[in-house]
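Sequence design from tokenized structure. All designs in this work follow the same two-part layout: the structure record, then the generated sequence. An example of the structure record is given first.
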């Protein structure tokens, strides 16, 4: 159950997509003065050393964040996301990659709150130590799916839940649907963003069908593929499913995804997609 370590994959194309979406959602929430809760169900270690053994072994970040972080004339949609990368890497050398909790910490305001959950026995102590001095944050070693029920709704009635499981066990697929459904029943106006990997397309089609069957409306799909679908290559694409997306998010991702695809996939393989699984 605990074989997956995100440190092998930090900063890859999937992270670039996921954290671009995350940053744009936080930007939208920050447009209103009222504070909100950021809930991260599978928070990981917090930060990842790109010169470490795990990241160096795969080198996935070289085809991800390393391709774009210092480019000139960047799309405005990437401004907040890349400000997080640059804040962690002073001096122009890419040493660290921030996981979603650090991106949230960088972008949230003083009155906003972070609830961060991680179950992995090696990653949780790193996460806890990362946030020891941040009074806005609460870290727990617990089942992330259960937090979607126990932590919602927040007192402010404003919130954003990022759900980013490893999918190393097949039960993660029904578990994310059950968790989102439980959270949505308690907090139907919250924003829920679910990351998914495309290893077998049929599995993702089933996931989408299960989400549709919940009766939840306003479900947006955002996908970046680096290769055509395949049963033999491992992960060929990844995406985000966003429930109750901020009104600008659809167009923002339509603007920036073609640019990201061009930079991250010089060969031009794969595709981008922004479409509604379930509309209004």
């Amino acid at each position: 159950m605990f074989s997956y370590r995100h440190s092998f994959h930090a900063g890859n194309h999937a992270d670039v997509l996921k954290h671009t979406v995350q940053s744009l959602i936080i930007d939208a929430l920050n447009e209103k003065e009222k504070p909100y809760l950021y809930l991260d169900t599978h928070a990981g270690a917090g930060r990842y050393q790109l010169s470490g053994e795990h990241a160096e072994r795969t080198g996935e970040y070289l085809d991800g964040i390393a391709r774009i972080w210092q480019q000139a004339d960047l799309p405005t949609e990437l401004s907040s996301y890349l400000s997080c990368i640059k804040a962690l890497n002073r001096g122009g050398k890419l040493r660290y990659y921030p996981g979603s909790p650090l991106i949230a910490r960088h972008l949230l305001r003083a009155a906003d709150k972070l609830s961060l959950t991680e179950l992995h026995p090696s990653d949780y102590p790193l996460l806890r130590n990362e946030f020891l001095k941040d009074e806005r944050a609460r870290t727990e070693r617990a089942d992330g799916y259960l937090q979607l029920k126990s932590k919602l709704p927040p007192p402010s009635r404003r919130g954003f839940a990022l759900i980013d499981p490893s999918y190393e066990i097949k039960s993660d697929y029904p578990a994310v649907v059950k968790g989102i459904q439980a959270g949505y029943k308690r907090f139907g106006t919250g924003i829920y963003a679910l990351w998914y990997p495309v290893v077998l397309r049929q599995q993702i089609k089933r996931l989408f069908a299960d989400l549709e069957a919940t009766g939840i409306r306003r479900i947006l799909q955002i996908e970046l593929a680096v290769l055509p679908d395949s049963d033999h290559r491992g992960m060929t694409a990844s995406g985000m499913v966003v429930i109750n997306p901020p009104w600008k998010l659809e167009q923002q991702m339509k603007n920036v995804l073609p640019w990201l695809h061009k930079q991250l996939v010089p060969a031009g393989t794969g595709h981008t997609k922004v479409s509604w699984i379930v509309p209004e």
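Strands lie at 37-40, 47-49, 96-98, 113-117, 137-140, 159-163, 191-198, 219-225, 237-243, 271-278. We note this feature because it recurs in several other targets discussed in the main text.
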